[in-house]
Amino acid sequence: MKLRILSAIALAAGTLVAGAANAQQPPAAPPDLNAIPDKMPFANPYGAPISLQRAEALIGAAVAESNKRGWTMNVAVVDSGANLVAFGRMDGAQLASIPIAEHKARTAAKYRRATRVFEDAVQKADFKYILSLDDVIASRGGIPLIEDGKIIGAIGCSGGTGSQDEAVYRRCEHDQQITKA
Fold first, then answer.
1. Considering the domain boundaries, does residue 24 fall inside one?
2. pLDDT digits (tens, 9 = 90+) for 26-56
3. Range of the domain at 172
4. Predicted pLDDT at 64
5. DSSP letter, residue 31
6. Cys-Cys link to 143, which of 75, 86, 97, 114 (CB 3.0-4.6 A)?
7. Is 6 part of a structural domain of the chain?
8. What sign for the dihedral angle of Cα 150, 79, 124, 121?
């Protein structure tokens, strides 16, 4: 009985010390929205559109990774103009994720950046204005596809958590030797 009481006291003391340590840290300063970067961010130029064969290979890599992990996903590949080139819906994949996968791919192509950038801007930097931008989706799972420094398209994955969606397209990058912006 004494051991339980001592353990409970030690746990409570540890919790109080950890809470006090966190309370003493000053809040992070918000990013300066008036800062002017020296270079234009996310300035990769648009290139020739991705081919159907390459888009289907990316979907195949995403499906293989999803199968390996026991996940069901929807995967969309758009060209450099954000037009749908290929789409794959795995058996049993969530129906609501069909347009989300397409939206992630379109956003990544149009804005020349991973959709995680928007998620981080809203979640970590509290940049709520991001939500007012046209055709933005602030959720991980979309990346531009870059070849020879030019955007040839984008891929969007949806059906799992943001980290699952992201893990699937990262495997596509690796298998297809595509770089991300």
1. no
2. 656 666 778 888 898 898 999 999 999 999 9
3. 52-176
4. 94
5. P
6. 114
7. no
8. positive
Total tally of structural domains belonging to the chain: 1
Kindly state whether residue 31 falls inside one of the protein's structural domains: no
Residue 32: predicted pLDDT: 74
**148: which 2 tokens?**
């020879």
CA distances from 157 to 21, 35, 109, 140 (A): 39, 33, 14, 9
* CA–CA distance, 181 with 179 (Å, rounded to integer): 7
Instruction: Report the residue count for the chain.
Output: 181
Write out pLDDT tens, residues 49-91.
999 999 999 999 999 999 999 999 999 999 999 999 999 999 9
Q: Which two tokens stand for residue 170?
A: 């990262």
Cα gap 64→89, rounded to integer Å = 12
Residue 19 lies in a domain: no
